[in-house]
Write a structure and sequence with these properties.
Chain A: Residues 7-248 form the ABC transporter domain. The complex is a heterodimer of chains A (256) and B (219). Chain A is α/β, with parallel strands linked by helices and 256 residues long. Chain A contains 9 helices and 10 strands. Chain B is mainly alpha-helical and 219 residues long. Chain B starts with 13 loop residues before the first helix and ends with a helix. The chains are: A alpha/beta (256), B mainly alpha (219). Bound molecules: adenosine-5'-diphosphate (ADP) and magnesium ion.
Chain lengths: 256, 219
């Protein structure tokens, strides 16, 4: 177990009923690295991402994030609620649909993790929330309700909410797919700045130009398997596997 | 024949009527509270992944939803003691029945409210590292409650109406007191009219409240 590896998956498998969605996936993400996960719809990208913070509990395999590891290869029993919660607290996750808490203000959304999960005093959590909102460019929206924000603003609040837990890694599941095209840029800019700060990130995306420019590595998945993996520019511009080539050919007009 | 209305005589029974009102409201509040507590348990058990618990609780709900309260009351008071040897006072039998009857409906309302909360909210709370209880308390219940309150108030209106059935066990609720007054005064028309008016005066504000809560936009 190397300290330079922040995420380590070995032989992760997941089935829903008889449908095998993840077939023996092994993957590592170095500390501070940005890895883009690409692949056709239904290939298991979301399931893989959700397995990394145990929102989906795999059937077998080994998962480590930072200092927290879980081994599913021997145990049949589900991990306990407390252990799952402690594990998840170390990873931040951003969803396609934002999933902000509608009954709380923007600021309360960002404070929620620290206050409820970490027991941070309210005043301290508020200070942190305001700093993070400023960082994503939304300091003036602190007192608003999420439903009064645009999609791009909602997603930036969701990023601030995840960052408030000071996670070891950030997971993004198609963070810009639900946005109007003109709002995609503001969210990608925030992700880009996190990359520049050295945050370890794994992101599922259909923004190939962004993946090529911001990610260090690209992982291409199909039918629950990692088909090709390598340097971001290399995989996107000169994919070696025919399936990767076929998949990327749909995007090439967008790759300036 | 022209009937001579005369409500004046009812004044002499005002203590009796007061007791009736107290019993009716008291039983409603008591069984609404106990019904809600048991209902919460019922909802949580039905939402749990414990197969046996889900099965038992579902059977319980269906039994209470698919038989009349009056039958449940009578069964609990006359039949249950024969089965268990446990003598119940009319008030205890009434409390027990209305609690369980209320719980079977409250439980379904609570469960419905909880499952109406978007799964993305559960994901978001879990992803922050919340434990089940925190997720419920901070994320799910605050959103579910808004949707649950109007049907819960409606169910409580029904619960209050159902307390009139307690009169068959000689629990001195409003209707039972009315029956006493009638047999003493031979004036059922005024007496039962007054009883109806009192029920109406209690329930009308409640149904208005439920209506107002339902009409609130955005939830
Ligand atoms: N909770 C679930 N229950 C059943 N099937 C699921 C569930 N989640 C995902 N799947 C199935 O797993 C497959 C992969 O889904 P997903 O991981 O969402 O793919 P992707 O994100 O790459 O589009 C799909 O066929 C999907 O229908
Ligand atoms: Mg997906």
């Amino acid at each position: 177990m190397s300290n330079t590896r922040m995420i380590e998956l070995i032989g992760v498998q997941k089935s829903f009923g008889t449908l095998q969605v993840l077939k023996d996936i092994s993957l590592t993400v170095d500390k501070g690295a940005v890895v883009a996960l690409i692949g056709p719809s239904g290939s298991g990208k979301s399931t893989l991402l959700r397995s990394i913070n145990l929102l989906t509990v795999p059937n077998s395999g080994y998962i480590r994030v930072g200092d927290h590891a879980m081994d599913f290869s021997s145990t049949q029993t589900l991990p306990r609620d407390r252990d799952l919660a402690a594990f998840r607290a170390r990873t931040g996750m951003v969803f396609q649909g934002f999933n902000l808490f509608p009954h709380m203000t923007v600021e309360q959304n960002v404070m929620e993790g620290p206050v409820t999960v970490l027991g941070t005093p309210k005043a301290e959590a508020r200070e942190l929330a305001l700093a993070l909102l400023a960082k994503v460019g939304l300091a003036d929206k602190a007192g608003m309700r999420p439903d009064s924000l645009s999609g791009g603003q909602k997603q930036r609040v969701a990023i601030a909410r995840a960052l408030a837990m000071k996670p070891d890694v950030m997971l993004f599941d198609e963070a810009t797919s639900a946005l109007d095209p003109e709002l995609v840029g503001e969210v990608l800019a925030v992700i880009r700045s996190l990359a520049a700060e050295g945050m370890t990130m794994l992101l599922v995306t259909h923004e190939m130009a962004f993946a090529r420019d911001v990610a260090d590595r690209v992982v291409f998945m199909r039918d629950g398997c990692v088909v090709e993996e390598g340097d971001a520019r290399q995989v996107i511009e000169q994919p070696s596997h025919p399936a990767t080539q076929a998949f990327l050919s749909h995007f090439h007009n967008g790759l300036a | 024949m022209q009937y001579q209305w005369d409500f004046g005589f009812l004044l002499q029974y005002k203590a009796l009527i007061g007791v009736g009102v107290l019993y009716t409201i008291g039983f409603t509040i008591a069984t609404a509270v106990s019904g809600l507590v048991v209902g919460c348990l019922v909802a949580l058990l039905r939402l749990s992944h414990l197969r046996a618990a889900t099965w038992v609780v579902t059977a319980f709900i269906e039994v209470f939803r698919c038989t009349p309260v009056l039958v449940q009351l009578v069964w609990c008071y006359y039949a249950l003691p024969m089965l268990t040897g446990l003598e119940l006072t009319p008030a205890t039998a009434a409390f027990l029945t209305l609690t369980l009857y209320g719980a079977s409906f409250y439980g379904e309302i609570i469960r419905g409210g909880i499952i109406s909360v978007d799964l993305g909210q559960w994901d978001a709370g879990r992803a922050l590292g919340m434990r089940r209880s925190q997720l419920m308390r901070r994320v799910v219940l605050p959103q579910a409650l808004r949707r649950m309150v109007p049907p819960l108030v409606n169910q409580t209106v029904l619960q209050l109406k159902n307390t009139s059935l307690l009169s068959v066990l000689a629990v001195p609720d409003l209707l039972y007191q009315g029956q006493l007054i009638t047999s003493a005064s031979y004036r059922p028309l005024e007496t039962y009219t007054m009883i109806a008016v009192i029920y109406f005066a209690i329930l009308f504000p409640l149904t208005r409240l439920a209506h107002r809560l339902e009409a609130r936009p955005g939830h």
